[in-house]
Structure formats: structure tokens, C-alpha cells
Design goal:
Strand order of the largest sheet: 1-12-7-10
Distance between the termini: 41 Å
Strand content: 25-35%
Largest sheet: 4 strands, antiparallel
Number of domains: 1
Number of helices: 3
């Protein structure tokens, strides 16, 4: 019987740990209690996204070991994926007094409008900062600073008015809206959707509201991020 190296044993243990985490997340999803509609939609979306990410990491670990994630031949890698306890970074229903966010960056987003959102800090339900520099920037041994390239997110829409519409996400320095929607909504339904999106080096995201009639409040939670180095200096929860 071949003797596994210490590195191989470590990778196998990491894969088993991820499998255990995936099973636990599925169990929590199955047992999710009934709460307010926006929170229920948001929590279900976060758990599904986290479970999917864990499954992908397990599969990737079996095939590639500790190699960084890559979008495929001809595309640059966004580096390593770092999972985290879901953290709220934005809720358009917050107030300026509680959150310190400018009033112009709060409230419903209406058709043909866009808004730049800071993802830098984790916040509580009222908007107060609880985890500063949630998304880290790391200065490596060579003195080169590496920023978070992209995030895994959960986007929730609530309290829509005016009609149906959609939101699209893009890096904070984007000059035009993407050609695709990140979530579609109608009046009377709180909906959530998860995905992965690139962000700007300023740790900002730009949210575009579509050309249709509807306006809405929206909530952004972060469930993980991609960064090039295999080490991170961050106050991750």
C-alpha cells in the first residue's frame, strides 16, 4: 500500500472537513425556521450559495488539490476562495443616523438609476459597523498589495413598488450596466439570488436598476471572496 505524504493527508483531511460542512449547511437549510419574508429569502439564498460553493471546493480539491480557482483557458484566475460566515454589508432601508452612510446612498433604487455600494465593512441589522475591513487587502513579502478580486454574494429585493424590474451588479468603477440581470422582481414578492461578481479595488460594487417601471429596496450579504495570495490578514468572523 502506498504511503501518503503529509501534504496529501492534509488535503484529504481538508476535503473531508468541507464535506462535513456541506452536510451541516444542508441540514440547516432543511430546518430553517419561518421568519420575516426578507430575512427568510435572504437566509435561504445564503445557505444555498454557501452549500454550492462548498460542493464546488470539494470537487475542485479532489481534482486539483490546492490550485487556485480559474475561469478556464484564456481567462485570468481570481485566486483562492475564502469562505466566511455570511455578513451583511448593505441594506437600503438603513438610516443615515444609524449607519453613517450618506442619505443619497440609501432608500429605494428606481428605474435607470445606479448606486455605488461600499463592501468594506460588516454591519449589524441597523447598519452600524461591527467588522471593519471585512474585505481585506494584503501586502505580501514583496511589498505588492493584493486586493479582493471578487465576492460571493446574496442579493435580496424587498418592498418593491411601481411594477416589475431587475437589478444588475458590476464592479464599483463600472461605467455602464451589464447586459444581464442579477435578480428580477415584481411587486408583492421578496426574492433573493446568489452569485459571484468582480468588485473594484476600492472594495465597491455598483448596483444598476433596469429600464422597467419598478423600484425596490435591496440587501447585500457577503458569503466569501476571491483573493490571489494563499494567505489573508482579515478579521473574518
Amino acid at each position: 500500500m502506498p504511503i501518503l505524504s503529509e501534504e496529501t493527508n492534509m488535503e484529504n483531511n481538508e476535503i473531508q472537513d468541507l464535506k462535513n460542512q456541506l452536510a451541516l449547511m444542508q441540514q440547516r437549510l432543511d430546518q430553517l425556521e419561518v421568519v420575516g419574508e426578507p430575512e427568510r429569502a435572504s437566509r435561504r439564498g445564503m445557505l444555498k450559495l454557501a452549500a454550492g460553493a462548498a460542493a464546488g471546493v470539494v470537487a475542485g480539491g479532489m481534482l486539483m488539490g490546492a490550485s487556485p480557482a480559474s475561469a478556464g483557458t484564456g481567462y485570468p484566475s481570481d485566486g483562492y476562495f475564502f469562505s466566511m460566515t455570511p455578513q451583511r454589508v448593505y441594506d437600503s432601508r438603513w438610516t443615515n443616523a444609524a449607519s453613517g452612510i450618506a442619505a443619497t446612498k440609501l432608500g429605494r433604487l428606481s428605474k435607470n438609476e445606479s448606486r455605488v455600494i461600499s463592501l468594506k465593512d460588516g454591519r449589524d441589522s441597523s447598519g452600524r459597523v461591527t467588522t471593519a475591513d471585512l474585505l481585506p487587502f494584503t501586502t505580501g513579502p514583496s511589498g505588492v498589495t493584493t486586493f479582493v478580486q471578487s465576492i460571493a454574494y446574496n442579493l435580496t429585493v424587498t418592498n418593491a413598488v411601481g411594477g416589475a424590474n431587475y437589478l444588475s451588479l458590476a464592479p464599483g468603477d463600472a461605467t455602464s450596466a451589464p447586459a444581464t440581470s442579477s435578480i428580477n422582481f415584481v411587486i408583492g414578492n421578496d426574492v433573493a439570488n446568489g452569485g459571484i461578481v468582480s468588485i473594484s479595488s476600492a472594495r465597491e460594487l455598483k448596483v444598476f436598476c433596469g429600464i422597467d417601471l419598478g423600484a425596490c429596496h435591496f440587501i447585500i450579504d457577503i458569503t466569501g471572496f476571491y483573493q490571489t495570495p494563499s494567505y489573508v490578514l482579515s478579521p473574518l468572523p
